[in-house]
Every structure is written in C-alpha cells, then in structure tokens.
Amino acid sequence: MIVQCIRLILALVLLSVCSYTDIQYRKVKNYVTFPVFFIGTFICILTPEKDLLPVAIGFVLYAAFGYLHLMAMGDSKFLIALTAIYGLKFSFFSMLIGVAANFLYALFTDVDAVILAIKNVKNFVLYHTPVPTKDKTRYPFTVFISIGAVILLVLRAVT
Question: Are 95 and 145 in contact (CB under 8 A)?
Fold first, then answer.
C-alpha cells in the first residue's frame, strides 16, 4: 500500500512539474526526471516482482526515440522516468493516448498544419522527400503524455 502511494506521489510530481516547465520554458528539466527515474528504479528493486527488465527496455526504447529525433529528448527522459514508476506498458499507452490527444488538439486548432504534416509523412514514407514548410508548429508533447497518464491512472483507480 505504501509503495502505491509513493508511486502515485512521484507520478503526480513528475506529471505536474514537467508539464509546467514544458509549457512555460519548452524544456523538461533534468532535476525532476533523473531523481524520479532513480527513485522509481530503486522501488522496482525493492518490490517482490523486481520488474527491472521492462524498465531497461523502456530506457533503451525511449532513449532511441530521442536519439533518432522521433521525439524531443525531454519527452523521452520524461517517458523513461514514467516507465521507472509504473512500467513500460503504462508509459507506452500514455504515449499513445498523448499522440491521439495531440493529433485531436492540432486538428481542432490548425487544420492546415495537420494536412501538411500528413502529406509530409506520406511523401517521406513513399518518396523520401518531405514537403518544405515555412514554419513548424510545435506543441508541448509532455502535456499530452501527462493527459494520457492521468487517464490511465483514473482508469486504474476505477477498476
């Protein structure tokens, strides 16, 4: 019971502080993600399940996402810390819900940018030539991942 409370407090601190700094400064700060990662990993070691393999897989997976520029490094550090707290499945589904929420938000706020992004993906996949753009609209992805994590935490509490 106390482990679940510690995990929930860590997750709420991580979600709120990282979302705030991503909105305010467009950065996810290391002074939040690194301690949460180490504390979450330490909790994994202490629990009877000792589920360190999913944490290690999540670390490699999200670090590769950041290194390959599939997402910003701050977002990948945020997901690595979230994986240390609740596991790979939780962080992966948080990311998927965040992608869907980000897509819906972009669709309702800037339809032209979404259409151009879809054309870019199609042209990159089929022809390896993206469409040149004037400026890129960027959204704080950590906020959308946090929305996905809150949805999963609520679903976990309800069931």
Answer: yes
- Separation CA 116–CA 122 (nearest Å): 10
> What local confidence, expressed as pLDDT, does residue 112 receive?
84
Among 99, 77, 84, residue whose Cα is nearest residue 151: 99
pLDDT above 90 as % of the chain: 64
Cα torsion through 79, 56, 39, 30, rounded to 10: -40
Helix (H) / strand (E) element for 54: namely: helix 52-67
Domain that includes residue 115, residue range: 2-158
Query: How many separate domains does the chain show?
Result: 1
CA-CA distance, 58 to 107, in Å (whole number)? Answer: 29
Overall pTM > 0.85: yes
**CA angle at residue 86 from 82 to 90, to 5 degrees?**
80
